[in-house]
Write a structure and sequence with these properties.
By secondary structure, this protein is α/β, with parallel strands linked by helices. The chain has a single domain, classed as Vaccinia Virus protein VP39 (Rossmann fold). It is built from eleven helices and eleven strands.
Length: 324
């Protein structure tokens, strides 16, 4: 009997990739299989992992913070703020006209991580809250950005009130969960009647995904449980009671980075941070050299990511939706 698709429930699924490994963080020596759904064209881990299994695939240094100020850390922070402009623009457009007269738009960022996006949006007048499953992430968000983050097993158990938020964002969240329908059901409940949800996921049918195959950074086995096609994420949102308002295939922060990290995983900044925490680390000079090399690969990736986005095949797909 075939395994049912976690996105559309279709039983017509077939093995697509076998013996995929944790290429980027080496948290486990296990290999994994992925199945493809003939209905919505998504890929998903088979078997779907339990939550306690997923937790051990996130390295201990994933949210590590080096509190020592240095020029390299300053430029890293500056770069992150610049490339977040796409996210901020999408959120600002989605929130237009939703807040009460004279009030601030109420926003929840699910999977908020270190809280940088919340910090930027707070400075622009948003009333922000964060949710994450990681206590490390909450500590980082409070320490670096002064934002409050609720930690819990799932957003459904976080205790948010019905109609509490004008905007809920899920940037790179739904690919990490085994039951995306449950997450969107809770999001719909806590959104006010005219509220908006913003969802961003890697696009399994992007040009870069087809180019790199099982080596594509967007797969991120085994942390990415479900890998969406554009059709799959639209179908999921529709079945959860949402109507699509806008779709975007270009993203300044994530599309080029996925190409660069697929080509040169040893230069990927997050992977390096994890490896440095495990081992002796790298010298300041070597850190600058690797950052510069990674930046060069990022720049070289832009012709590809611009072209794929123009043909609606970007490395990520971002959708703004409202309650149907």
């Amino acid at each position: 009997m075939n395994t049912r698709c976690p996105v559309c429930g279709n039983a017509d699924t077939v093995p697509r990739i076998v013996e995929a490994a944790d290429r980027f963080f080496q948290t486990t020596r296990l290999t994994f299989s992925l199945r493809a759904c003939a209905g919505c064209r998504c890929l998903f881990l088979d078997p779907l992992p339990e939550r306690q299994d997923l937790e051990r695939f996130y390295p201990a240094a994933y949210w590590a913070v080096d509190g020592r100020p240095n020029p390299l850390r300053y430029f890293e922070s500056l770069y992150r703020r610049v490339v977040l402009r796409d996210h901020v623009g999408c959120v600002t457009r989605a929130a237009a006209g939703l807040s009460p007269a004279g009030g601030s738009p109420r926003l929840l960022d699910v999977g908020c991580g270190s809280g940088l996006l919340l910090s930027v949006l707070k400075s622009r007048g948003f009333d922000v809250r964060g949710f994450d499953s990681s206590r490390e992430a909450r500590a980082v968000a409070k320490h670096l950005h002064g934002v409050d983050v609720v930690v819990g097993e799932s957003v459904a158990k976080a205790g948010f009130a019905a109609d509490e938020f004008d905007v809920v964002t899920l940037f790179h969240v739904l690919e990490h969960v085994s039951d995306p329908r449950q997450v969107l059901s809770e999001v719909r409940r806590i959104l006010q009647p005219q509220g908006r949800v913003l969802v961003q996921v890697p696009n399994i049918e992007s040009w870069q995904s087809r180019l790199f195959g099982g080596r594509w950074y967007g797969l991120d086995v085994p942390r990415h449980v479900v890998n969406y096609s554009h059709y799959a994420i639209r179908k999921l949102l529709g079945s959860a009671g949402f109507r699509i308002r806008r779709t975007r295939h270009f993203n300044l922060r994530d599309n080029a980075a996925a190409v660069a990290s697929s080509l040169c995983p040893s230069l990927d900044p997050v992977s390096r941070r994890v490896r440095n925490a495990r081992h002796s680390g790298e010298s300041t000079a070597m850190a600058w050299i690797k950052h510069a090399a990674y930046a060069g690969v990022l720049v070289a990736a832009y012709p590809l990511i611009l072209a794929e986005s123009l043909f609606n095949s970007g490395g990520t797909v971002t959708l703004e939706a409202e309650k149907a």
